[in-house]
Amino acid sequence: xxxxxxxxxxxxxxxxxxxxxxxxxxxxxxxxxxxxxxxxxxxxxxxxxxxxxxxxxxxxxxxxxxxxxxxxxxxxxxxxxxxxxxxxxxxxxxxxxxxxxxxxxxxxxxxxxxxxxxxxxxxxxxxxxxxxxxxxxxxxxxxxxxxxxxxxxxxxxxxxxxxxxxxxxxxxxxxxxxxxxxxxxxxxxxxxxxxxxxxxxxxxxxxxxxxxxxxxxxxxxxxxxxxxxxxxxxxxxxxxxxxxxxxxxxxxxxxxxxxxxxxxxxxxxxx
Length: 271
Known about the structure:
There is one protein chain. This protein starts with a helix and ends with a strand. It has two domains: about 1-210, no CATH class; about 215-270, no CATH class. The protein has nine helices and eight strands. It is of the alpha+beta class. It is elongated. A hairpin with a 4-residue loop joins β7 and β8.
């Protein structure tokens, strides 16, 4: 009986109804303080409330099976991420074994805890790294202290009004379906819906570790795949590689990860 109760409690903690009920209960935290919220800019409080509800109601075991990749159009900026595993990154999600879809030219395949996920990035608008720097997020000293301790945590900045969702009844077929079909968030396998993706899906990934570097350019893929003769040492790379190829190999060496193409084929490894 104890195991049955624990199983039922686990099922109830991973559902859309619990998620919207939590958001309805936190509706006073959305938007500008003291003003009614009808959707739009959720403010810091609303963004934190959404992440809190997600943490409480998402199926984190299933989410952990997804492959997440942070993308950039400028490979040289990827070195800025070395040692920044405490900072939350925006990433696309891909089912295990499927080819990677790429919104930009270069990807850093990462593995960490998904703290929020949506079928379409336009339902998140989490912003950029600099948006969470000094000014809006505190003084330079406060942000520097946060960078050294917990890292920079991102938030959603947009949402609709969920205040009336508290009226939905758990166990009611219409209510359960309405809650599940009217949220943009990916809480579990049943809310994974690529048909809702207009541009890219998006996940916020915290406490991540690098898994690999993803290349999309066919010329770069071809070049790197033919570099088996280059050992995984800085000296070898400096001697035998040039240009962007050298940068790719040195970055892979710094992260300690292989280089892949979008079909998950390993092209080169420092090991």
